[in-house]
Amino acid sequence: MTQAKRPGGRTARVRAKILTATVELLARDGVSAFKYEEVADRAGVHKTSVYRNWPDRNDLVIEALSRHADQQIPLADTGDLRTDVADFLLALAAELETPFGRALVNAVQSREYEEVTSTIRGVFDRRLATLRSRLERATLRGELPPVDPLFFTHMISGPVHLYRNRADLTFSRLEAERITDVVLAGIRATASQGGDLASS
Amino acid sequence: MTQAKRPGGRTARVRAKILTATVELLARDGVSAFKYEEVADRAGVHKTSVYRNWPDRNDLVIEALSRHADQQIPLADTGDLRTDVADFLLALAAELETPFGRALVNAVQSREYEEVTSTIRGVFDRRLATLRSRLERATLRGELPPVDPLFFTHMISGPVHLYRNRADLTFSRLEAERITDVVLAGIRATASQGGDLASS
Asked: Which residue among A43, A140, A190, B104 is the one 20 to 30 A from A167 at the CA level?
């Protein structure tokens, strides 16, 4: 978001390199453990360039993550919820292999940094809003009973995270569809039994 | 596993302190980023005690995690699969708040360290064996169609990880039962549709 402050200038290019390196190191080491020295090394700049621009670690992390703040995981509306959710899970799995995807996972887990956490929550809230409206359209069409979007996203995304955490497991369309099928069928079955999964 | 080498001796106590501190720092910083200096500080020993005993970082991590290698997440067999799975998820959520639970999550995500990864896989394999036999008994009793235990554990545990990653969300029996109900109902519904979830 702030990367275009001085478009084309040398300072802007240096800042962009530093922020890119920060995301890469957040992906590997997390918020509390990544080192300014390594950020400088990767960005090919002197350490003082990092310290001068971001004396506060929180600010560096927040600015680095904020460059991707509007990045969504694509969730289409083809009219076929099963296909759209399975595609969404494949796109999520792909994001979890990117530096930003890993950085986001690491950053949300580090609860020490309240300001970082609220930046991340902004990313999640925007993504949740997209999911919510997709689910509402599915409900209007009678594809799915009303469902809490946060619960839904945890049900479909949680298994993907665990598959992607382990390098020895594959995650392909087969797994994406199995997860989707179980969650959609489970929500339909439990809603008709009592409806206590519905919300808002 | 090696902690009882010199039972009661000073060396054994120092080693135990170092291994405990290592798990705490793995929980916060992960495999690649935790520092020997901080391990020594926390354990109240000199840095050379850590280096001398574990010149290789992999060995320190493996020994620290191995002390908990047989730790299971309790999975009872009361004859009521729903209750037992919900209890299991509450126990998993509790473990994810402990240093070992966080350390395990961080360690499995760090794919750079092949030997560490295979130690962790041992922990997971033992846990999976417990789940597999519980699921098999449920299938014999007609409570659940045959299901791949790895898929099942990802379906029920994945959402718990995402709830526990966020300090602003609660995870109580209500959430544990909602997850359990959707997964059990979804597996029953999809198995009767085609049975392609069955395995082994």
From this structure: A43
